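Figure 6 in text form: structure in, sequence out.
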C-alpha cells in the first residue's frame, strides 16, 4: 500500500467495514428502510404481473434509440428529484441555522446537519444536477430526436448507444449508494487541491466522486461519438448541411464540445486518483506539484461543459418557438453560426472561474474579454427567437410557456454572467451566493427547456398529449418557486453572503432566507403537480391521442412518421427537399402521401451485453472506491473478456420484410385515420417516398 489508509484495510473487503453503514443516522436510516420497502414493492409488482420477460426483452436489452432515450430521461428525472431534495435540505439548513441562538438537533450545533454532512449535500447536489440530471435528460432527447430528425432508422452504433446508457446508469447508482455505504465528497462539486488529498480527506467521499465522474465522462463520450457519427453519416437523401434541422445542429455543436472537453476532465481525475491511490504529488505543492494545475484542468473541462448542457437546450427552444409561432425560425444560418461560435469560444474562457487566483491584470483582462465575447452569439440567438415570435400566430400552450420562461431566465443569467466576467466586480462577488444565483438562472434555462421538450415531444414518443391544465399549473408553480428562491439569493449575494454556509452568522438575513424557504414549499407543490400531470395524462390518454403531426404546425421530419414512432422510424426513408421539409410538404398538400410499395429493411438485434457491462462497471467503480483489489481485478477481467467475445460475435441484425412493413404501416394508418377522421386516410397514388421525382419542388410555391 503506497498511501496510508486511515481506518484500516482488509484483503477481503478493502476499506469497507460495518462502521461505514450509517444505521444510526436519523435521516439516512429511515430513508434506507423506505428505499428497501419501495424496491420490494416494485420488484413484487413486476413479478406479480409477470412483466420480467417484457422488461428484459423490450427495455433492458433494447438497442432502439427511442427506448434508450426514454430510459435516459427516466434516469434524469429520478436524479432531478434527488437533486431537488438536496436543494431543499440546503435551504432548510440555512433558514434554521441563523445566528448564535439558533437551535440544533441530530448532533449539530445549529440546524440539523453537521458541517460534514452539509458539505456532502451541496457537493452531491451540484454534481448530480449537472451531470446526472441535466446531462442524461439532454442526451435522452438527443437520442430520441436526432435520428428521426435526420431521417435515419437508428443511431450509427446502436450497441454503443446501449452501452453509453448503462454506464450512465452505473454512475447514477454509484452516487446513490454513497448515501448508504460510506460518505460522499464534502468539498464542493468541483473539489479543491490540496483538500482532496488523502491527508485532508481521508474518507472514501472523494473516491466516490472520482469514479462517479469518470463513469459519467465515459458514458457521455460514447453517446457523443454516436450522435456525431449519426449526424455525419446517416442523414436521409437530400438532407444537405443547410437543411439540417436546428436541434440537430445544436446537438452537433454540443457534442463537439463534449468530445473535446471530457478528456481533460478524465485526465484531471486520473491525476487526482494517482495522488490518492499511488501517493503521487501532481497537486501537492511541497513535492513539486502545483495546486492551480488542478483548478485549471478542471475548468478547462468545466466551462465548456456548461455550454455542452445549454446548447441542446437552445436547440429545443429553437424547435418550440417556430412551431407555436407558426413561422419558420428567424435567422437559421446565424443560429447555426452562433452555436458554433459559442462552442469555439467556450474553450477560451475557463480562467473566469478563478480571476481571484491573482494571475495579474493582463491575464484577467484577456479572459474577461473572451468571456464577454460569448454574449454576442448568445444575443444573436435571443434576438432570433424574439423575431421568430414577432408577428407570429402565437399559441401559449404549456410547452411555449416553458420556452418563454427559459428565454427570460437566459436574459437574467446572461446579464449577471456579464457582471461576473468583469474582474473588478468579480473580486467582490466571487464565492458569494450571487454566483450561485447566476448559475441557477442559467442552469434553470436548461430545466425549463427540458420541461418544454417533454411536453412538445411526448406525443411523438407515446402517441398522446400531456394534460394542458396540469402542465400549466406546474409551470406557474415552478416559476413562482424560481422567483422566490433566486431573487432573494441575488440580493443576499450583493449583501456579501458567501456560498456554502452551513451556519448563517448574520441574523439580518433571516427574512430573506424565510422567503427562500417559502419558495421551496412552492417548488415542492410544482413537483406534486408534475406527478399529478403524469397521472392525469395517462388516465385520460385515450382522449388525447394524436396522429403523425401532433401539433399541426411542426416543421421537421420526426412529425412525418407515426406517433408513437414505430421501431423502424420510417418504413421508407423520406427524401428531403427543403429545410423545413414537413412545413413545405404541408404547404404543397403532399404531407399525406403514402408510399406505394415497401422494400425489406435491416435492423439491429437486441443484446444483453450492454447492461451486463454496465453492471460490471458499477462493480468496478465500487471496488475502486473501497479498494477491494480482488474485485477490481475480477470485474475488469470480466469486462475485457466480455468485450472480446462480443467483438467476435458481432451483430448480423435481422430483416423486416416489405410485406410485414406494409401490414404494420396499414395498421398505423388505420389508427391515425380513426383519430383524425379523414386525416391521413387518402393515399396518393404514385407518391413513392424516397423517389425524389414525386416531390420535385414547384418553385412558384417557395416563400
Ligand atoms: C448552463 C450554464 C451556464 C451558462 C450558459 C453560463 C454562461 C455565462 N457565465 Fe456562468 N457559470 C455557470 C454556469 C453557466 N454560465 C456555473 C455552473 C458557474 C459556477 C460554478 C461554480 O463555481 O460552482 C458559473 C460561473 C461563472 C463565473 C465565475 C464566477 C465566480 O466564481 O466568481 C463567470 C465569470 O465570468 C461566469 C460568466 C458567464 C458568462 C459571461 C456567461 C455568458 O455565456 C452569458 C451570455 C448571455 C447573455 C449575455 C444574455 C443574452 C445576450 C443578449 C441579450 C445580448 C446583449 C448583451 C450584451 C451585449 C452583454 N459564470
Ligand atoms: C430546483 C431548484 C434548485 C434549488 C432550490 C437549488 C438550491 C441550491 C442551493 C441552496 C445551493 C447551495 C448554495 C450555496 O452554496 O450556498 C445550490 C448549489 C448548487 N446547485 Fe442548485 N438548486 C436547484 C436546482 C439546480 C439545478 C437544476 C442545477 C443544475 C443543473 C443546480 C446546480 C447547482 C450547483 C452546481 C451548485 C453548487 C454546488 C457547490 O457549491 O459545490 N441546482 N443549489
Ligand atoms: Cu465558466
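Output sequence:
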Amino acid at each position: 500500500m503506497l498511501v496510508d489508509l486511515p481506518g484500516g484495510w482488509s484483503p477481503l473487503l478493502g476499506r469497507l467495514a460495518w462502521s461505514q453503514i450509517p444505521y444510526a443516522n436519523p435521516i439516512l436510516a429511515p430513508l434506507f428502510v423506505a428505499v428497501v420497502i419501495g424496491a420490494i414493492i416494485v420488484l413484487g409488482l413486476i413479478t406479480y404481473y409477470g412483466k420480467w420477460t417484457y422488461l428484459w426483452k423490450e427495455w433492458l436489452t433494447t438497442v432502439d434509440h427511442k427506448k434508450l432515450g426514454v430510459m435516459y430521461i427516466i434516469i434524469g428525472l429520478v436524479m432531478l428529484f434527488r437533486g431537488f431534495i438536496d436543494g431543499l435540505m440546503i435551504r432548510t439548513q440555512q433558514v434554521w441555522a441563523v445566528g448564535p441562538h439558533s437551535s440544533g438537533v441530530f448532533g449539530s450545533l445549529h440546524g440539523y446537519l453537521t458541517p460534514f454532512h452539509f458539505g456532502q449535500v451541496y457537493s452531491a447536489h451540484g454534481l448530480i444536477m449537472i451531470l446526472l440530471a441535466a446531462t442524461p435528460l439532454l442526451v435522452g432527447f438527443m437520442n430520441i430526436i436526432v435520428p428521426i430528425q435526420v431521417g435515419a432508422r437508428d443511431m450509427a452504433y446502436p450497441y454503443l448507444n446501449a452501452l453509453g446508457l448503462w454506464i450512465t446508469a452505473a454512475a447514477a447508482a454509484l452516487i446513490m449508494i454513497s448515501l448508504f455505504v460510506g460518505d460522499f465528497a464534502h468539498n464542493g462539486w468541483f473539489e479543491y487541491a490540496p483538500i482532496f488529498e488523502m491527508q485532508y480527506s481521508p474518507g472514501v467521499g472523494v473516491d466516490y466522486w472520482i469514479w462517479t465522474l469518470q463513469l459519467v465522462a465515459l458514458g457521455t463520450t460514447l453517446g457523443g461519438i454516436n450522435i456525431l457519427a449519426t449526424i455525419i453519416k446517416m442523414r436521409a437523401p437530400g438532407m444537405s448541411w443547410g437543411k439540417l434541422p436546428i436541434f440537430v445542429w445544436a446537438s452537433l455543436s454540443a457534442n463537439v464540445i463534449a468530445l473535446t472537453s471530457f478528456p481533460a476532465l478524465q485526465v484531471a481525475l486520473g491525476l487526482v486518483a494517482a495522488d490518492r491511490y499511488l501517493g503521487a504529488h501532481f497537486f501537492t505543492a511541497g513535492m513539486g506539484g502545483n495546486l492551480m494545475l488542478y483548478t485549471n484542468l478542471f475548468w478547462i473541462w468545466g466551462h465548456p461543459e456548461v455550454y455542452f448542457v445549454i446548447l441542446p437546450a437552445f436547440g429545443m427552444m429553437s424547435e418550440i418557438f417556430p412551431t407555436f409561432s407558426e413561422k419558420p425560425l428567424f435567422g437559421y444560418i446565424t443560429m447555426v453560426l452562433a452555436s458554433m461560435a459559442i462552442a469555439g469560444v467556450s474553450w477560451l474562457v475557463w480562467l473566469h472561474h478563478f480571476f481571484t487566483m491573482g494571475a495579474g491584470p493582463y491575464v484577467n483582462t484577456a479572459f474577461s474579454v473572451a468571456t464577454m465575447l460569448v454574449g454576442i452569439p448568445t444575443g444573436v440567438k435571443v434576438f432570433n427567437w424574439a423575431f421568430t415570435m414577432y408577428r407570429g400566430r402565437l399559441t401559449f400552450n404549456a410547452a411555449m410557456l416553458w420556452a418563454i420562461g427559459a428565454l427570460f431566465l437566459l436574459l437574467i443569467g446572461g446579464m449577471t454572467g456579464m457582471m461576473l466576467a468583469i474582474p473588478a466586480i468579480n473580486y467582490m462577488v466571487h464565492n458569494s451566493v450571487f454566483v450561485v444565483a447566476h448559475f441557477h438562472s442559467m442552469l434553470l434555462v436548461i430545466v425549463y427547456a427540458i420541461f418544454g421538450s417533454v411536453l412538445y415531444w411526448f406525443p411523438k414518443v407515446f402517441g398522446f398529449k400531456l394534460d394542458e391544465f396540469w402542465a400549466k399549473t406546474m409551470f406557474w408553480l415552478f416559476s413562482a418557486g424560481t422567483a422566490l428562491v433566486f431573487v432573494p439569493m441575488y440580493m443576499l449575494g450583493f449583501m456579501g453572503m458567501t456560498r456554502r454556509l452551513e451556519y448563517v452568522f448574520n441574523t439580518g438575513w433571516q427574512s430573506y432566507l424565510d422567503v427562500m424557504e417559502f419558495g421551496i414549499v412552492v417548488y415542492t407543490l410544482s413537483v406534486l403537480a408534475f406527478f399529478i400531470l403524469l397521472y392525469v395524462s395517462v388516465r385520460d390518454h385515450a382522449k388525447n391521442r394524436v396522429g403523425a403531426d401532433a401539433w399541426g404546425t411542426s416543421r421537421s421530419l420526426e412529425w412525418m412518421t407515426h406517433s408513437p414512432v414505430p421501431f423502424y422510424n420510417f418504413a421508407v426513408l423520406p427524401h428531403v427537399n427543403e429545410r423545413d421539409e414537413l412545413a413545405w410538404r404541408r404547404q404543397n398538400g403532399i404531407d399525406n402521401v403514402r408510399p406505394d410499395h415497401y422494400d425489406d429493411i435491416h435492423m439491429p438485434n437486441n443484446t444483453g451485453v450492454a447492461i451486463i457491462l454496465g453492471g460490471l462497471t458499477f462493480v468496478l467503480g465500487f471496488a475502486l472506491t473501497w479498494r477491494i483489489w480482488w474485485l477490481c481485478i475480477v470485474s475488469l477481467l470480466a469486462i475485457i473478456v466480455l468485450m472480446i467475445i462480443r467483438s467476435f460475435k458481432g451483430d448480423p441484425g435481422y430483416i423486416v420484410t416489405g410485406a410485414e412493413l406494409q401490414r404494420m404501416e396499414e395498421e398505423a394508418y388505420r389508427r391515425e385515420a380513426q383519430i383524425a377522421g379523414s386525416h391521413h386516410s387518402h393515399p396518393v397514388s404514385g407518391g413513392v417516398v424516397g423517389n425524389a421525382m414525386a416531390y420535385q419542388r414547384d418553385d412558384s410555391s417557395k416563400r
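Caption detail: Confidence is low (pLDDT under 50) at residues 678-694, 698-703.
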